[in-house]
Design brief:
The chain is built from 18 helices and 13 strands. It is of the alpha/beta class and 541 residues long. The chain has 3 domains: 174 residues, Ferritin (Up-down Bundle); 226 residues, 3-Layer(aba) Sandwich (Rossmann fold); 41 residues.
Length: 541
């Protein structure tokens, strides 16, 4: 990885955040929109220049300026051919390019010009770069000057934004891979990855994403579909896509949070998954699943599913609907009740688990993050879901992760791995809860796995290796006998240590233990007499 290129990218992000801070928008709810729109605009601008430079007509151009100059001089007919030649690359008109806008930054109406350019780019590329929201589409850009309340400051704000973009170039970035862009993306959204509502968080630690991807597809794959019904910012699906091979898969996602879907779109673009943008759905997965079969009557099924669904959320408004006959087939184990005084603690992850199982192809594989309490919970819904996983022969294994693996929650989590590609009769259960080191993340503490620990988890799981007090292969019959418990600790062999002693050593050890016992008896008698004297004093008083 080119460290200087990475640092340069991060500096540009910092510069954009500084602009927002200087105009009073630091930590404002609009800040993430401004940062992501400006960043993405610059990325797409430089990407188009990069792709243009590879066309025969631009072969004589040796720098960015010459490519831009030749692009501006193209006649209308030639320009109309570019979308066919550049494929999914966003097309930006010459007058809307960064360099063109920069040359206009001192004009009195620059804010309007800047917004018009962003909105125009979004409209020109609507077919590829929009996100589905019911029957409507959420466009790529909506403009940014509107977030400045004082109209007389809007020109200066937009001028400062374009100034933060013009001196940086993504030219050296496009040769970088997933590891580079995952860091850039994480840095870009690190201040905005918490949901202000009740639908969980956007960001799953890369260690977990990496483990899930490498266990699901250790050798990669080809021509497959990947799905996440509660995708957040897309950390899980992109990690798996990287493991499978970016050109070997199509990604499908859904999330009801607009912010999450905007992050998802950005993540897909940065990681070369533009073809999957049409499969990003902004809607409630439980009530209105956006990915259906061709006849529209059942769920679309997928080759791989990864998910870190929200564990708890207030679904009281739709609970009765979800429990109705209309959804009975999908939520076959039942719908949890709404806690009377704390509706926000409804265990909606149980519905996502059922949804995921029903979204699996006959040979599909899945990995789902769940609260560790699910592994042994005795209530009806939890028990029926675990029983289904075992009785259908698809439970491949479970990994219990260290506490505080997520910085913003103390809930202990585990990962359940399902595999329908073959019938299993046993599962590997792993207790990795003692791994990791504590690290301060802002105000919170998070457990961070080392690369060696990650390797141990992946290798042990994929090779089905049993390790004392760490991993065990549990036969399905044994799991059934323990009421479908998925807790590794219940299957570890209890080891009793034996020591060879001579008769003399044995007598000596017995004598030592008897001395200890007599001493404890004497101590107990003494305490008993003291208590009696204190009780007498209390009685006399």
């Amino acid at each position: 990885m080119n460290t200087s290129t990475l640092n340069g990218t991060l500096v540009m992000i910092d510069n954009l955040k500084t602009v927002c801070a200087n105009f009073g928008l630091a930590n404002d709810s609009s800040e993430y929109k401004i940062i992501t729109e400006a960043f993405l605009y610059k990325y797409l601008n430089d990407r188009m220049i990069y792709e243009l430079s590879k066309l025969d007509q631009f072969a004589d151009c040796h720098d960015v300026q010459s490519v831009e100059g030749q692009y501006r001089n193209l006649d209308a007919e030639r320009r109309e051919m570019l979308p066919y030649e550049l494929g999914t690359t966003a097309i930006i008109r010459p007058e809307w390019m960064v360099s063109s806008l920069y040359n206009q930054k001192d004009k009195d109406d620059f804010a309007k010009t800047f917004d018009a350019a962003l909105i125009g780019i979004a409209q020109d590329n609507l077919d590829v770069y929009s996100v589905k929201a019911g029957a409507e589409s959420i466009t790529l850009f909506q403009g940014v000057s509107r977030f400045i309340v004082e109209e007389n400051k809007r020109n200066g704000f937009c001028s400062a934004l374009i100034g933060a973009l013009v001196d940086f170039s993504f030219a050296d970035v496009f040769s970088q891979g997933y590891d580079f862009f995952s860091q850039v993306f994480e840095y870009l959204i690190k201040d905005y990855n918490k949901d202000s509502g009740s639908y969980g968080e956007y960001f799953t630690p890369h260690a977990i994403a990496n483990i899930m991807g490498r266990i699901l597809a250790p050798q990669g794959d080809s021509n497959v579909t990947i799905y996440d019904p509660a995708a957040g910012s897309g950390t899980l699906v992109l990690a798996l896509a990287h493991q499978v091979g970016e050109g070997n898969c199509t990604v499908y996602t859904q999330d009801r949070s607009q912010k999450a879907n905007e992050f998802m779109r950005l993540n897909l673009i940065l990681n070369g998954q533009v073809d999957s943008l049409a499969n990003v759905v902004h809607d409630d997965t439980l009530v209105s699943p956006g990915h259906l079969s061709y006849d529209g009557k059942s769920l679309k099924t997928f080759d791989y599913i990864v998910s870190n669904p929200p564990f708890k959320a207030d679904f009281s408004a739709s609970r009765d609907l979800l429990a109705s006959e209309k959804f009975g087939k999908r939520f076959w184990a039942g719908v949890p009740k709404v806690p009377a005084k704390q509706p926000e603690k409804m265990a909606i992850y149980l519905m996502f688990l059922q949804h995921i199982i029903d979204s699996m192809k006959p040979d599909a594989k899945a990995a789902i993050v769940v609260p560790t309490g699910f592994l042994t919970a005795k209530s009806k819904i939890e028990s029926e879901i675990r029983q289904n996983m075992v009785d259908s022969g698809m439970l491949r294994g479970v990994i219990s992760m260290p506490s505080n693996i997520f910085a913003n929650t103390g809930t202990n989590v585990s990962i359940i791995f399902l595999d329908r590609s073959k019938q299993h009769d046993n599962a590997l259960l792993m207790d990795a809860s003692k791994l990791g080191a504590k690290e301060k993340i802002g105000k919170n503490q998070r457990t961070v796995l080392s690369s060696e620990e990650t390797e141990r988890i992946v290798s042990t799981f994929n090779t089905l290796e049993e390790q004392d007090d760490f991993s065990v292969i549990a036969n399905y019959n044994a799991i059934k006998e323990k009421r479908y418990s998925f807790s590794a600790g219940q299957y570890f062999e209890v080891k009793i240590e034996y020591a060879d002693l001579t008769p003399k050593q044995f007598q000596t050890e017995v004598g030592r233990r008897m001395e200890q016992l007599h001493a404890l008896w004497a101590e107990g008698n003494k305490l008993q007499e003291e208590i009696k004297e204190q009780m007498k004093a209390v009685h006399l008083a």
